[in-house]
Amino acid sequence: MANPAPQVRSGQWTVLDFGDSLPRCAAIQSLRPWQPQELMPLCGRVLAKPGFSSLCEAQGHGCGLILVERHGFGEAAALCRGVQNHGFHRLIIARQLQAGDRGLTEPLLPPRHGPLATSGAQAASRHLAGVLGENSF
């Protein structure tokens, strides 16, 4: 994207940038020492390309997802289908993003099949602790 600053004009949105890729303007807040997942509990929506960790973190924190098409990543289509099935979402193409249409003002589409459980890490930990407890050294 050549210059996204003019595209971030709406006073109702703040864009959080975790690197140095965006020019500074009032609506873009640089949060370089932080990781995205640390601030997701404070966000209503996450704008991202389909990727395992960002989608899992956003879903786990109950954030809606605006996904930008991603080419050259084999799992992108499956991840997008999963979000469509289990999370509030909106899919946009790269051309929309480059033209400044991030879909931020559009309502998110509801999941087709309802949300997934977000307790998978705890369930795995309990199972692992049980296995290790039974087979201690």
Strand proportion, as a percent range, falls in 5-15%
Q: Which segments are poorly predicted (pLDDT under 50) over 5 or more consecutive residues?
A: 1-10
User: CATH homologous superfamily, by name?
Assistant: Glycogen Phosphorylase B
Radius of gyration: 18 Å
Instruction: Encode the helix/strand succession as letters.
Output: EEHEHEHEHH
Could you give the order of strands across the largest sheet? 3-4-5
**What class would the helix/strand composition place it in?**
alpha/beta
Under CATH, the topology is which? Answer: Rossmann fold
Mean pLDDT comes to 76
Helix content: 25-40%
Q: Helix tally?
A: 5
Determine and state the CATH class: Alpha Beta
Question: Any idea what the shape is?
Answer: globular
Between the first and last Cα atoms, what is the distance in angstroms? Answer: 55 Å
CATH second-level architecture: 3-Layer(aba) Sandwich
Number of discrete domains: 1
Strand segment count: 5
Topology:
Layout lengths: L14 E3 L10 E3 L5 H4 L5 E4 L3 H9 L3 E5 L7 H11 L2 E4 L1 H5 L21 H15 L3
Parallel strand pairs: 1-2, 3-4, 4-5
Description:
The chain is of the alpha/beta class and 137 residues long. It has a single domain, classed as Glycogen Phosphorylase B (Rossmann fold). Helices cover 32% and strands 14% of the residues. It has five helices and five strands, in the order E-E-H-E-H-E-H-E-H-H. The chain starts with 14 loop residues before the first strand and ends with a helix. Residues 1-10 have low confidence and may be disordered.
